[in-house]
Design brief:
Elements lengths: L7 H37 L43 E6 L7 H12 L2 E7 L8 E4 L4 H8 L6 E4 L7 E5 L44
Parallel strand pairs: 1-2, 1-5, 3-4
Antiparallel strand pairs: 3-5
Length: 211
Amino acid sequence: MTSPAPDPVRETRRKREHERQAVVFGLLIAFLLLAGLAAAAMYSGAFSSPFSRPIYTPVAEAPQPEPCLPQVEGQPDGALPVPYADVKVRVYNAADGSEPLAGANEDVLNERGFNVVDTGNWVEKLGQSEVRFGTKGITRAYTLAAQYPDVRLVLDDRKGATIDLLVGDEYSPPLSEDDVLLDAETPMKDVEGCVPASEITPIPRVTLPKN
């Protein structure tokens, strides 16, 4: 009996399948070899696995706490307000708008007897208004802050007693004089959540360039 002639189409298909299988097996073998080499390198310490590195998640820096009032010699019941004329203050605009907020606050503070020694524009824009001061100006800062409904007390590393009022975007006008809770004979109260100044790291003082 005569054997059937080979089918060329079937032979070609079988050859292609063999070639495809050889490629697949070759890739698998190459992958296993590379994985083995990588594992050996990590085991020997040649390089570290990316999965062994700690995941870094940025943490928002907590704002500086506000300082408590200091003990003042001759005022055993607590620090009294500083006479307005003894409070040297610089007033700066730290808001985005073009409204002359520094000048407007200068007028109000001068009318109340504060000693405004300078005005101008601050070097950065702020949201909440701030009073900045050194350790010698804490009672002065509290005296000034009492004129406003919402202002933050910020301790910096200046040496003198002059303080700065920075008027930010979230600016609130000064309280009326009748609403200022200060009395020359009544000790001032600490702001809520305050920390003794000795436990606070002051921020660097910002010095504005001179014109």
